[in-house]
Specification:
Helices cover 64% and strands 0% of the residues. It has helices spanning 12-25, 29-42, 49-55, 59-69, 81-99, 104-109, 117-120, 127-144, 149-155, 160-170, 173-188, 190-196, 200-219, 223-236, 240-249, 267-280, 297-311. Helix 10 (160-170) runs antiparallel to helix 11 (173-188) and helix 10 runs parallel beside helix 13 (200-219). It is elongated, with a radius of gyration of 23 Å.
């Protein structure tokens, strides 16, 4: 084979022509699968692939068709590895569109993330489903990574928070990490923090899941997951009402030296944890409720959260809405 025809020596012009060819092939069911695979490989190397995908006729519709086609395979759970790989290639291209500044707004305006939510609702722990959930989370993660207000505003109108919380409780370590990162990004936005701390129901749901994660992390440490959990707690402590509640329900494992080894080489997380403890003034607030004697850590934490229903200082009108 001559150097001129070698793929390794393909010119930028020839490569762009090949990309356009693959995009055109997405419109045809018989060539779509191969084109999805090739384009997904190029999504990080081809400049402006996202605008090409968005503005080419029928391409986004073809990607959405790939997503919709496997809805019947998720309930009942019959999704195969081949189906999962194919739709994840389509999701990878949507992540490319979600990440690009020229296509992100129209991506949200078209409410395309909602097509991914059925995948986030799945509970099967098989590899095809886990891969599907993780790739779907990657699309949402690409959106929140931009720290743009319009992204958070959109997400707060959807069910993304309870979906992430369920994955944080039952998902794999990697899925939990991405889901917690998404929650962290929502909390870091002022409207996101206000939304979660607006009612006791919302706050307690987040606090209970974070508490369960801390207890599980004490048994199976993960520095990268713990980092996002601590950051979520720290951000919650910026809200006066949530800070008062956290004084009662922060897991004991974050107060003592449970994670000292895990955080030994993680200066940023160690610093965030110190700030959290300082914010809550834990040295002056020690749990002394005798009814907690002999309880397991999780039972104790849930008991304290139950007590917060009576002491969490939300106006009564906050309980009227979810």
């Amino acid at each position: 084979m001559s150097a001129q025809s070698s793929p390794a020596c393909m010119t930028p012009q020839n490569e762009q022509e090949k990309v356009f060819q693959w995009i055109n092939e997405l419109a045809h069911p018989e060539t779509r699968e191969a084109a999805l695979l090739e384009l997904s490989k190029k999504r990080e190397t081809v400049t402006d692939l996202a605008p090409m995908l968005w503005h080419s006729f029928g391409t986004i519709a073809a990607l959405l068709q790939e997503i919709i086609n496997i809805y019947p395979s998720i309930n009942p759970a019959t999704l195969t590895a081949h189906q999962s790989n194919r739709v994840c290639n389509a999701l990878a291209l949507l992540q490319c569109v979600a990440s690009h500044p020229d296509t992100r707004t129209v991506f949200l305006q078209a409410q395309i993330p909602l097509f991914l939510y059925p995948f986030l609702q799945t509970t099967s722990k098989t590899r095809p489903f886990e891969y599907l959930r993780l790739t779907s989370l990657g699309v949402i993660g690409a959106l929140v990574k931009t720290d743009e207000q319009e992204v958070i505003t959109f997400l707060l109108t959807t069910e993304i928070i309870p979906l992430c919380l369920r994955i944080m409780e039952f998902g794999s370590e990697l899925s939990k990490t991405v889901a917690t990162f998404i929650l962290q990004k929502i909390l870091l936005d002022e409207s996101g923090l206000s939304h979660i701390c607006q009612t006791y129901e919302r706050f307690s749901h987040v606090a209970i899941i974070l508490g369960k994660m801390v207890i599980q992390l004490a048994k199976e440490p993960s520095a990268r997951l713990l980092k996002h959990v601590v950051r979520c707690y720290l951000r919650l402590s910026d809200n006066p009402r949530a800070r008062e509640a956290l004084r009662q329900c922060l897991p004991d494992q974050l107060r003592d030296a449970t994670f000292s080894v895990c955080l030994q080489d993680d200066k940023s997380t160690k610093h965030w944890l110190q700030l959290l403890i300082k914010n809550l003034e834990l040295a002056a607030v020690q749990p002394t409720d005798p009814r907690q004697m002999g309880m397991s850590p999780l039972t104790s934490q849930l008991h304290r959260l139950d007590l917060l229903a009576f002491c969490f200082p939300f106006p009564l009108r906050d309980f009227d809405q979810n």
